[in-house]
Amino acid sequence: KALAQRDSSQADLQSAQSNEQQAEINFGYTDVTAPFDGVVSARKVSVLATIVQLDPIWVNFSASERDVLQVRAALASRGETTSSLIGIPVEVGSQTEDGYPHTGKLDYVAPTVNASTGTLAARAVFDNPDRALLPGYFVRVRIASRRQQPALLVPNVALGSDQGGPYVLVVNHDNVVEQRQVDAGQVIGDLRVIESGLGKDDRVIIGGIMRAIPGEKVDAEQRSASN
After folding, report:
1. Helical spans, DSSP H, in the chain
2. Number of H helices, E strands in the chain
3. How far apart are CA 196 and CA 75, in angstroms?
4. What is the C-alpha to C-alpha distance for residues 98 and 116, in angstroms, rounded to an integer?
5. Of 30, 51, 109, 159, which cross-links 38 as Cys (Cβ 3.0–4.6 Å)?
């Protein structure tokens, strides 16, 4: 009887030791270490939470296939490849900010164009010590696609768009309104770069556009760009 009780007690001890080891393993799971500094967001369930990195912060955006082709052509003309884009400056601005006050660097460009959207994914990284940018913000992105060079600018309000693409209304030498299809570039303040389709001596209609009808003669009042 004593031997049986000893064996039973020994078995109980081994079971308790096993339970203790399992408890230590489970306790180890309660200590979660984040791979980076951040702020813990609201808990989704009782034992999980999301840690959001704020500094640095990444901005994900995409470029149209047309923009991609233009950038690749510009790179080829300089004897460069897409790998040279990594590290170039990227500027962003939030919906309530004027211009593009935040400057970062491009750190990723997707190797393929998304066939369903016709866009190329890219990403830029920004220092964000003052937490001016938060995850989930929508921002405007600007990247210099070519080296600085003289460009033709028109007020952005002068541009219209139809099935043929962007256009402006101009007054020809006979004071007759013409619709001119143009290739529009980036926005700079209230102005838009015109890549092609317009000459520096063309008179672009910027006022009374709704009353200007192509083919009709007008009495144009000419103003300088500064006015």
Report:
1. 2-28, 65-77
2. 2, 14
3. 20
4. 33
5. 51
